[in-house]
Amino acid sequence: MELRLYDTLSREKRTFVPLDANNVRMYVCGPTVYDFAHIGNARPVIVFDVLFRLLRHLYGEAHVKYVRNITDVDDKINDRAARDFPGLPLNEAIRKVTEQTGEQFHADVDALGCLRPTVEPRATEHIGEMREIIERLVAGGFAYVAEDHVLFSPQAMNAANSVLPRYGALSNRSLDEMIAGARVDVAPYKKDSTDFVLWKPSKPGEPSWPSPAGIAAQGRPGWHIECSAMAWKHLGEHFDIHGGGIDLVFPHHENEVAQTCCAFHSERMANIWMHNGFLQVEGEKMSKSLGNFITIHELLADWPGEVLRLNMLKTQYRSPIDWTMKSLEESAKTLDDWYRVAADVAPTAPAASVIEPLLDDLNTPQAITALHGLRGDAAALSGSLRLLGFLAESAAQWEGRKQQASGVDATEIERLIAERTAARSRKDFRESDRIRDLLAAMGVAIKDSKEGTTWEIAR
Ligand code: AMP
Ligand code: ZN
Question: What residue spans define the domains of the chain?
């Protein structure tokens, strides 16, 4: 049986043939560590965890290398550090923010049943590799220095007329259209509107490193170069699978391909490019900027991580998911049943009926249907659920936890209501609505009156 995966670059499902079956290599873009991750951010983590587990099943645990980076240099991190630790020197404050957020991220995704990747490189530990790629790009005529920045020129890439892929091929855009559609307020140091930053000068107090390409001023990397450098260091110039959310196709992944292929004069960076669809709330992408988000941490206060995981996998990874309470409740019931039937049963090998749909571009909804069909074969159900990252607990642990969870944390609810009241009085209605939705997600209904806000358990 072969594994078939949808490849964003060729826009078709392709049979997966590893470059080296003894060393199957996958890179997935990881979090920028400045704040709690929301449940939309959990989608790529869970989806590629399922793929990691499937690859380990097919090729052997020791033969799969999964790299997921941590972006720990970014404007959002600097802003958060200055806001949260105003008394500290910026660099120390940044360390605090990235350490705390990184730990929280691990706690969250561990609870979702995700294995740790083989390597979790940090951007700040790979500045040397970034500088080296940048030097190569300048030497090759693909990048230039201007006002202490280094810029990559997609037009130079497409003029090179060699083995290189075409800039725009991954995201299916034409460079001419990008040029025509460029905004008018292009940064003055750019020769062309489509040029993007590889390296930029640091402002006073910001993290900074010695610059490449003979620039005297200290600087810091752009975002795209980080992933090219970390993937190169840990997986080589050319590897099997590169993944991330669909919003990363352009510009992030297009630019990663450009940097890596031009630096190493190669035809491709990854053999297969995979992208998960969005997790949505009422038809809109869940995102920090829209304010319609709920963090993994908040959801875990109410639901076991495996319920969130199952709820995510009920939809095939390329389709949008509408995240609803009703679906979460159904997922919880399903897992209660599976725990009762299979958690304490010694597993056999996962069932073929579950593996087969997974081999077809990770068709997890079909695999879940097959799991329902295994109710009469507890050992195979147990083995199949474990392959998918479920049944980390015993049936008794699961049951005990549920009973604990049904006791409502009144202090936490009162605290959230007080936060909402404060948000309302400063007319921050986005925040107050967010907290109301969060309470609703916890099963708490609130009622405002002249006397104040009262609450009750709605479910
Ligand atoms: P960010 O922190 O925005 O860079 O996102 C981290 C990862 O989460 C990236 O792979 C994004 O594509 C992914 N992501 C962000 N929002 C969503 C969402 N609503 N649904 C699915 N994936 C998302
Ligand atoms: Zn990346």
Answer: 4-279, 302-397, 408-457
